[in-house]
Structures are given as structure tokens and as C-alpha cells.
Predict the 3D structure of the following.
Amino acid sequence: MRALLVGASLKDDRYDIEYSLSELHALALALGIEVIDKMYQKLDRINSKTYVGSGKMNEIIIAIHAYDIDLLIFNDELSPSQIRNIEELVHIEVMDRTYLILKIFEERNQTKESLLEIKLAKDLYLLPRVQYLREKEDRIGGGAKTRGKGETQRELDQRHLRGEILRIREELDRLQKMKSNQIEKRKRNEIPIVALVGYTNAGKSSTMNTILEYTNAKEEKKVLSKDQLFATLSTYNRKITYNKIDFMLVDTIGFVSKLPHNLINSFYQTLEEVKNADLIIHVLDSSSPYINEQLRVVLEVLYSLGANKIPTIYLFNKWDKTINEGLSMPGAKSLYFSNKTKLNLDELMNQILEYVTPSTLRAQILIPYSKGELSNQIEKNCHIYKKEYQSYGTYYDCEIPIKMYSLFHEYDLDTMVS
Ligand SMILES: Nc1nc2c(ncn2[C@@H]2O[C@H](COP(=O)(O)OP(=O)(O)OP(=O)(O)O)[C@@H](O)[C@H]2O)c(=O)[nH]1
Ligand SMILES: [Mg+2]
């Protein structure tokens, strides 16, 4: 497919049009669509009939013929009548940003939950467009005519979609409740949550894999990391044990600007863990010329999630190929990082530990009878679950204040065995 991208730049746009179109370009590429050119018009407001004005539309028609374009992609969501009007003028396929994103999500579906969420968003998108799509099908031929008890095909389609929407919502509700219960349980178990968040393709999944490798986790715990938008479409939780400390590392779906509003809802649901995180690692792509815009997109989503107050480490990832020297986040913790060269990986782990280290830790300890003073310390300062006099010394299963742990490290049964 040879596509032409069409945008509108409005005075109060929150994002620069060049950036926004480059993002649309990346989205098209993710579907294997070849982008031949981009055009945009500065407007006071979007033309209600054809999105851009008639002069621009003529330019578009000329470009379609000149470059043999067979697909127009608009940078905003179009109404059903706008799509119809434009298609009548250009006689080639017309798509909008929303449809493009939904298509990508559909292709990349991974888990049952994300599949349902995407289907729901797509059904909601299609509902007001059923009539037009049906007419188009009839024009092309092969569409069914009126049938049933006086109902039109459109009504049947709409009824079917409404039924589907209801069913999916119920199923999602059920899955969501299960997930909330799991999160609650985890909270009760007090395993701290560290969430990797960031713009799509910034390197969140790679960072998750780097940390898994560093902590000698099993190979099969690794997640998919790929050079494409929305490689990850759901959240993935991995329990990490490092220096005897447990925490839950969460890989999340990446963000883009102007997400279709039907998807935003489901998007937020998959981000439940982020709301409950004890620490956020905000992964940024230092090799992107649009790092500032991408940072803003992510900060806005975090803000609307109510996750903007959670302690955050800004990870300037892909530092091995940065084009942005001297980046920093004033007043916040930040690190230059690379999954390729492992730059600052030790430091990242230290910083994570600072946040996830509980004030006490549970250990099984065997104190030789010759070290009576250490036994006294345990008796005085630790919560003891179990105590046994064994032939070699006193066995304690106890909760030790972290600050004191080094005193007992060599008598920890884990240390003695390994
Ligand atoms: N050069 C370089 N490439 C990196 C680095 N980290 C990740 N990448 C590459 O960036 C691409 C995207 O990485 P992912 O880890 O899949 O990114 P993500 O943020 O999980 O992306 P989505 O799940 O699609 O939102 C992959 O091709 C990675 O190999 C890095 O430090 N340096
Ligand atoms: Mg990912």
C-alpha cells in the first residue's frame, strides 16, 4: 500500500504537527504501509465535511495521481460522514488515525484481556459507522439486503455489535476483578512493585529482560522486545529476587499521543499496576529527536492515571546511540542507560534496591553456641518465628532489621549452603 498522510495543524494543538505526523508515519510503518508523502494544512478548525479545505483537497487529489497513492491516512479521527465525503472525492481508501491504531493493536494481540479490550474498542468505533460501511459494501456488491422481520441489515449489525459490546464488557469486568484481587493480595504480601513505563519502543521490555538477566532469572521469564510500536500490549509481571530482596517488576504497554478515546479506557485498566507501584522507572529513548514530546505524552498519561506522585527514576535509555547530549530531569533521579552496553546497570539496581528494600528481612540463621552475644542481639531486636537448640548452635527463623543483617550474614543458612 502506498499511503499519503494528511494532517491539520490547529492553533491550540498540544503537539507540533511535524512530530504528530512522524508518529503517524511510524504507526503506518508498523502495519507495513509504505508512506510516500505527508501533507498538512494550518486551520482554525477542522473542516466538518472533508477535514481539510477544498483547495488542500485538490492538492491531495493531484498528489494521489502523481504518486500513485492508494491509501489516505488522516491524522485525527474522522466522522463517518467525513470518511464518506472524502472517499467520494478521492476514490481511494481512506483511513484515520484511530483505525490505524486499532488495527495495530488487533494484529499484535497477545493476551485474552488485550484481545477483548481491542475488540471492544473496535466495536465501539464501528457502531456509528455501520450504516456507511454497509452501504459501501452494497455499492461494491455482495452486501445483503433487508432481511428478517422488517429489520434492515444495519439494525441487525448494530444489534449484534451492541450485544457483543455488552458481553465483552462483562467478561472484562470479570478479568479486571480477578486482577485487582491479585494486586490486593500482592499488596498484602507487601512485595513492592516497580513499574517500567514509557513511550512505545523506548526500551521498556528490553530493560525488563536486562534486569532479569542480571538477577539470573530463568530464560523463559523474558518478555518480547522488538523494534516496533506496541510490541507489548499488556502488562507482564515478573518476580525478581536480588540480594535477598523480592520485588515485582512490571512491563507495561507503551504510550503514544492522541490515543483513540475508546482505547484509553482499556489502556488505563491494563495500567492498574502502575497506579499501585512503589517505584516507576520511566524509560526514555535518548536516540529520538522527539524525546521531549514523548516525555510529555507519558507524563500526561501518568498524571491522568494519578500516578504522577510516585517516586520515579528517569532512565535515558539507548544512550549508546543518543543524539541528545546533556539530558537531565531537574530535581529528579535520572540515569544514562543502555541495554546494549549495560551502562549504569549496577547503579540502576542499587537505586531500585533503595526503594524496594524493606526495613526488615526474614532469614533462617544458625548461631554457634560460641557466639552468645549474637544470640542476645537476635533475642532483643528481632521478631522470632521459630527457635531451636541444635547440636551446632541455636536456630532462628526470624525477622531481622536490615541495618543489622550484616552481623548475621555469615550465619544465614542460605549463605552457609551456597
Ligand atoms: N541501541 C539500543 N537499542 C535498544 C536499547 N534498548 C532497547 N533497544 C531496542 O529498541 C527496540 C524497542 O525495544 P523494546 O524493549 O521492545 O521497547 P518497548 O518500550 O518495550 O516497546 P513497546 O512494547 O513496543 O512499547 C528494540 O529493537 C530494542 O532492541 C538500547 O539501550 N540501545
Ligand atoms: Mg515492550
Observations:
- Residues 153-189 form the longest helix (37 residues).
